[in-house]
């Protein structure tokens, strides 16, 4: 979190203040409640608390003219830092202005850290008391003139001067923070050229943040008439979409020029993880802006078109962004369909989905999916408007081909709206904004971002499997057996390699959890045969067949085409015989099998065929000490290196886990944001057992779940919903009065649950067994 880093950096230079003062709070939040309480400030407060930053937030609504409450004054004085959210109506509150004066006194006298945030206001307006800040000051001055008591009038006049000085000073604070060795403030005359997608967004942010420290600034296109002015003043210039540099040959010493331009040659641009599609200014300033910030904080490379698309004017960068993105989040609001550009963008996104594995997450914001699907209400009004406009355009168009294209466009839009409404999406109407954003970010991390759960310590195995898969052998089929104990990471390893290599093969199939599905389901093996046959035969499903017929058809399909097949968690020979047969495999096919018993493989019928496959065996061992430390820190601290105070307890945890990845991940997730004393207590509980058992680790993680509801949710999923669709599961559980919401995210954070490629709930076999054992103990 950027703010937390800033606090830590600042605190290193204020250690004297730390010794002289007792701090009850890390941060005091100063804000105007009516402007930001339900949106930005609430989200900021939650983020601070989740980052272990003790924060004071006053829930009392501020009334004009009231004196600053003693508890607020005390909170300011006992805080290490203050964050001031300067919003449009901030200066209308005398309470806020009194807070500001006191905060700046603490900054001056005790080096209190002050971080101003300019929330939809320009720093220059705060500094010069212009726009709403000028109106607020004028209102206070009128109240002073109307005061009949001479003493009170004098006191109020003095206060207003203090307030005006404080508003100027708080802006100057940011200027001081920006100083140092940054490019903008090093005193030289420089030109910085920015190319690529999103260049305007970047330079606009820099300009708004820094322009108030420069004598003159202009972000509009420069003309020759400005040259004389540039020779006279130190200026920050942002020149957008330049195609001629003649305008920049008269720069005064200290000038800084940021230029956006098209690259002269085609640049290689990093693909985006996510494209954010939306309409209207209101949504951007609420859901979209917070979602965009959350995605970037999570390390998700996100494209947000900052151009005004409400007028229906497409921007060329967006089409490239769509085609280079791995997922799209489409915010469907009431006015969405009135924008022709939004509809064209939607058509392009759906076309991209058909040609790739592009993920689409529709968010229904103040609209019902059925209205989108059937084009009712505002969507019907929008389609009627487009119909009238297109009919008029068609009548005026003389080119027959263009008339045909215009006629098809309306049908494409209608079809696209129906398709997107049929996709699984997020209903924003009945969710808190923070929960909605958390769900979306988690889903993107799980389904799109390869780095969300890094396979620590598996690099050498991944390289080996990649090499084995790409060795180009076309004269024989190969079988690779990955063996190891439960929880060592066999499934995670082969999942990673399967999804990154399956496009090299005409057909591919990943059959997960074979042992569990065969033992728990009446027709488990038969269902696995059906799944495998559908995967390797263009999705063909044959009804009314028995297991022997399916086995025969699978044999023929495997012999006919080159396939990549993963059989996960095999524990007996008959499973291999039912899924592989004995007719042999097509040359070039690759079969990966995970098991605890390597001897099973060469005892199956396939090795009795005339042409035996090549068999390679890999034993998956536990992680080394350094790898264990990295994995544990990744889940406990969300970083790869340890915190200084935790080194001793980290060593104890690593020693107990014996390099087993599942145990390290589950323990790390359970101990996240916990203090050293809590770690010590967990270690004491684990050491009560005479020998290491990963089930003890899982049980401890369950025991420390924060609520009874969270525990009930875990048990219900373990017993009934593993492998089931997440959205359907949540609907059923909510009907049973079992809350889901952020609690599913909590189970994911603790590595007790995960989300599959098709939005299904997934749980490690050992974790699920523990959950079911708990239920059996409760109801013997």
Description:
With 780 residues, this protein is of the alpha/beta class. It has 32 helices and 20 strands. The strands form five sheets. It has a five-stranded parallel β-sheet with strand order 10-9-11-12-13, sandwiched between helices. The chain has a five-stranded parallel β-sheet with strand order 15-16-17-14-18, with helices on both faces. A four-stranded parallel β-sheet has the order 2-1-3-4, sandwiched between helices. Strand 1 (25-30), helix 3 (33-50) and strand 2 (55-56) form a beta-alpha-beta unit. The chain is globular. The N terminus is likely disordered.
Q: Tell me the radius of gyration.
A: 31 Å
Number of strands: 20
Gap between N and C termini:
47 Å
Helix content: 40-55%
Low-pLDDT parts are 1-6, 8-21, 61-65, 175-183, 185-190, 209-234, 243-255, 262-270, 307-314
State the oligomer.
Answer: single chain
- Portion in beta strands: 5-15%
Number of helices: 32
Biggest sheet strand line-up: 10-9-11-12-13
Tell me, rounded to a whole number, the average pLDDT: 77
Shape: globular
**Major sheet:** 5 strands, parallel
Indicate the structural class: alpha/beta
